[in-house]
Design goal:
Strand content of chain A: 15-25%
CATH superfamily of chain A: Aldolase class I
Shape of chain A: globular
Oligomer: homodimer
CATH class of chain A: Alpha Beta
Number of helices of chain A: 10
Structural class of chain A: alpha/beta
Distance between the termini of chain A: 14 Å
CATH topology of chain A: TIM Barrel
Order of helices and strands of chain A: HEHEHEHEHHEHEHEHEH
Number of strands of chain A: 8
Radius of gyration of chain A: 17 Å
CATH architecture of chain A: Alpha-Beta Barrel
Number of domains of chain A: 1
Helix content of chain A: 40-55%
Strand order of the largest sheet of chain A: 1-2-3-4-5-6-7-8
Chain lengths: 242, 242
């Protein structure tokens, strides 16, 4: 099947724009955050990301330098997580971690909000932290994604988190770390998009395993997908699985 | 049942020393590391720890100051986690996080080793990191525990991790974060004790839910137990459950 044929959402009566395989791959953050991941696995992740044309590799901070070096002049950028996955580090430490990752060459920062502070209503704390990290990222032209960990929040809390991230000038809101049980859902993506609007990105992550998962989330409004199953998803898609 | 009666390991033919309820409670790190934990829950954790006579409360860095303040002049100390739970932060960031927690009043640091580097055999990296954090803790008279995340390691890797922690002068080796699936087992505690010997502590953590779990791990050689079920465990024990 050619790439032109490999299109989703082009069925009769479907008003959504079609998605091609290149576009699908270009939405994927190829992700390896397992604590036991080794350098060889990080190298393979980078090589796959180049080969498939993924948007980024998403790695833990200790691997940023290696991934940057492995990707060389490729268009694939390195995303580093910060305060990950619990979000319960001190703001100063999250900021130092973000700056270090940026110094190491990361061009995207996926930070976890302080979930407990959001739940207890200390919105100022959550907002200040996001603002500081956003400023650090934007200072070097990097992108910042704000992980709100939907599975731990009520819909009202999800809305507040998205408003705060938008108000802080972040580039993306992101559903999940993948470490809290549960992951991206179509309804959460739609809710997040309804708050942040089309000028911000929405990254769906956690539990995305198949081309169907990926397409459903993109149709709901996700503009980026975080998954460790990128190669399988794109292969499935090219083979015609919707 | 009186505390004297509430003893374990005193059965006929049992050569292990008996454990009393006070001693059992004194081995427990009362733990609350859920990302959604709020300040009110941290306060309750501290109050329970005082009331039961636990060794410490174990909290995320953002809550250290609050826990220190809530515990006041109590004998219960505050343990903060560092690089938790993935262990894949940069060493400089782990060090900064530990120093900040110590400045905030933590008197115990539960750090996660760099698991990926251990698995790929970069022992020097793992050892240097532990040495730096141990020096920071010891400089202010604090205790450091080294989490090796047993569930991700082979027995040989567990042995190496324990040797490295011992060589770095750490105070405890600790089995698990509780976030990687799997937790403390009697066989892992015995293995860890066999490497580090009786002059170092062994903290069992992850999945400890009952008095039976707790006693089995103590009999295997654990000297500290990390659990969020401390009150239930001690109550069960006092009521005669072994």
């Amino acid at each position: 099947m050619s790439e032109d044929q490999a299109r989703a959402g082009a069925g009769e009566g479907d008003t959504q724009p079609a998605i091609g395989a290149t576009e699908l791959a270009g939405c994927i953050d190829h992700t390896l955050l397992r604590p036991g991941a080794t350098g060889v696995e990080i190298d393979r992740l980078c090589d796959e990301a180049k080969s498939y044309g993924f948007a980024a590799v998403c790695v833990n901070p200790v691997w940023v330098e290696r991934a940057v070096s492995r990707l060389g002049q490729s268009k694939v950028v390195v995303a580093s997580v910060v305060g990950f996955p619990l979000g319960a580090s001190r703001p100063e430490i999250k900021l130092a971690e973000a700056r270090r990752a940026l110094d190491d060459g990361a061009r995207e920062i996926d930070m976890v909000i302080n979930i407990g502070r959001l739940i207890e209503g200390d919105i100022g704390f959550v907002a200040d932290e996001i603002k500081q990290l956003t400023a650090a990222a934007h200072q070097v032209g990097a992108v910042i994604k704000v992980i709100i960990e939907t599975v731990l929040l009520t819909d009202d809390q999800k809305r507040i988190a998205c408003e705060v991230a938008a108000g802080a000038g972040a580039d993306f809101v992101k559903t999940s770390t993948g470490f809290a049980g549960g992951g991206a859902t179509v309804s959460d993506v739609a809710l997040m998009l309804s708050v942040v609007g089309p000028t911000m990105g929405v990254k769906a992550s956690g539990g995305i395993r198949t081309a169907t998962d990926a397409l459903n989330l993109l149709r709901a409004g996700a503009t980026r997908l975080g998954t460790s199953a990128g190669p399988a998803i794109v292969t499935e898609f090219v083979n015609g699985v919707r």
